[in-house]
User: What shape does this take?
Amino acid sequence: MAALSLDPDKYENDLELEKIRRERNYSWMDIITICEEKLPDYEEKIKMFYEEHLHLDDEIRYVLDGSGYFDVRDDEDRWIRIFVEKGDLITLPAGIYHRFTVDEQNYVKAMRLFVGQPVWTAYNRPADHLEARKQYLTFLAQSA
Assistant: This one.
C-alpha cells in the first residue's frame, strides 16, 4: 500500500485529495475550526464531542491545522487514543464507539467529509441495538 501525500496547506487544489474524494464517493465536505474564538458554544460542543458515541455513517476527518485526540474502543472495549495532527486523514467506521478532544493547544481545523448529505446524529453509548453497531461488531469478529 502506498503512502498518501496530502498537503493540508493546499487542500483546496490538492489533486490527491480530489482523487480520494472521487474514489470513496466523499461528495460533501465542510471545514470546522474547533477553538474558543471560532466555534459557537465552544464549551458545550467540546463536552458533546467528548461524550462516547457512535454514528450510522463513517466519520472522515482531514486535519488541516492544529491537533487533537480521537479515542476509540478496541475489540475488548478498552480505550485506544489516536493523536491526529496537521496532515492526518482519519476514517472511523460507522458503529465504532469514539470520542474527540482537543489537546493543550485547544485548536484544530479539520475538513469533514461525507458520502452524500451529512448526518450529524451522535448516538451516545449504549447504542448496541443499532444496525451500524451490529455490522461493526460482525466486521470485528470476522477480522479476528
About this structure: Residues 72 and 80 are 5 Å apart (CA to CA). Strands lie at 28-34, 53-54, 59-73, 79-85, 89-92, 98-102, 108-114, 123-124. Residues 8-143 form a domain with the Jelly Rolls fold (CATH 2.60.120.10).
